[in-house]
Amino acid sequence: MGRLTGGDPSLLRRINSAVVLRALRGADGSPTLTDLTGLTGLSRPTVEGVVEGLVESGLAAEAAAGTSPARRQGRPARRFRFRAEAGHLLGLEIGPHRVSAVLSDLTGRLVGASERPVSEEAGADERLERVRAAVSDLLRRSEVARSTLRAVGVGSPGIVHADGSVRLCTALPGWTGLPLGERLRRSFRCPVLVENDANAAILAERWKGAARGCEDAVMVLAGLSPGAGSLIGGRLHRGYGGAAGEIGALHLLGRESFPERLLSTTGEPLHPLDEAAVARVFREAKEGDEQARRAVDRYIQRLVHDVAALVLALDPELVVIGGWAAGLDGALAPLRAELARYCLRPPRVTLSLLGEAAVATGALRVALDHVEDQLFSVQEAMG
């Protein structure tokens, strides 16, 4: 890479463009050139030149002039707006029983959503075909061209490498070793970014859910194999190999507390072990069935142990519970009570506000973060 100097005109243009575009998107209403000059601290000629370039690129447009009767005589000041419709972002969730997709403009405002059921026994090819079908349906119904997609975020179970490949996954058949990012990139002409589903979920909760404004938080997806996503100082913590938060493996430490045994009401392992079977046990417990109530108590106790391990290690301000436990009446009270016993400083515990939408919403946030780094980040512009 060539040496950059303070007078490098290309670098300065990129920095100025990022600063103006960020101010334009964040401004209330439609700012004038004078407004943008004040917001950015740049000279008026510089701002005017940058805005003209943004208009030409399609990222900005001249807004309609105001019609206030108190307006002074003469030509009104030109006003501009960020064109959120200049591109679109896609968030995908790939799960055991369904795949879902959400679509937004460049501000993250939702445009539409689509979902497809899929068998838990489906192989990788069939599952990915369902993803493509959900995306095609969503783009068609939303009347959005595939060419306008700027980035695609994906939330998937398993340990995910930075290149989008899945190192290990026990939740989906044929998923371990799958080059997921590479497979999906064949369907898009934009970056595809793959994230662990629990990591995506905590990003979503911080963006639009229960963890808004929280810098240190843990999101627990309580499912067949509980997983957790963690924010430390506002940053996602993936761990050295991407395996941070895989609390579903704690039973390997000598506590053979597999979900199919914990949730059994017959003494035999619960089979098939899926969301429908677990929902039945929860429902029977709520209706007063003693065997089901004991099964649910055992499940909550395991969840407490798993969450306590994270809390003791990370000392989060907040624990957000999603997945099965989010729909379990009375789960929070025993969780809070047991964490108070186990933990030196018990965190706040709350249920997910996003529910089943958490993973897809977090995947959308991953795509939005990528595009914002490209368009608005001065650090990105500095290379």
How many structural units, i.e. domains? 3
> What is the average per-residue confidence, as pLDDT, rounded to a whole number?
86
The first-level CATH class of the largest domain is given as Alpha Beta
CATH architecture descriptor name of the largest domain: 2-Layer Sandwich
Largest sheet: 5 strands, mixed
Number of strands: 14
Tell me the span between the first and last alpha carbons.
Answer: 10 Å
Please identify the structural class as seen in this structure: alpha/beta
Strand order of the largest sheet: 5-4-3-6-9
- Classified in CATH, the superfamily of the largest domain is ATPase, nucleotide binding domain
The percentage of residues in β strands lies in: 15-25%
Q: What share of residues is helical?
A: 25-40%
Order of helices and strands: HHHEEEEEHEEEHEHEEEHHHEHEHH
Tally of contiguous helical segments = 12
Show unreliable segments.
1-7
**If you consult CATH, what is the topology of the largest domain?**
Nucleotidyltransferase, domain 5
Shape: elongated
| Gyration radius over CA | 24 Å
Give a structural overview.
This protein has 383 residues and is an alpha/beta fold. Helix content is 40%, strand content 19%. It has 12 helices and 14 strands. The protein has helices spanning 9-26, 33-40, 44-57, 124-142, 180-185, 197-208, 259-262, 275-286, 290-314, 332-342, 358-376, 378-381; strands at 60-63, 79-82, 88-94, 98-105, 110-117, 149-156, 159-160, 166-168, 192-196, 217-222, 227-232, 235-237, 318-323, 348-351. Strands 5-4-3-6-9 form a 5-stranded mixed sheet. A 5-stranded mixed sheet has the order 12-11-10-13-14, sandwiched between helices. Helix 6 (197-208) packs across helix 11. It is elongated, with a radius of gyration of 24 Å. It starts with 8 loop residues before the first helix and ends with a helix.
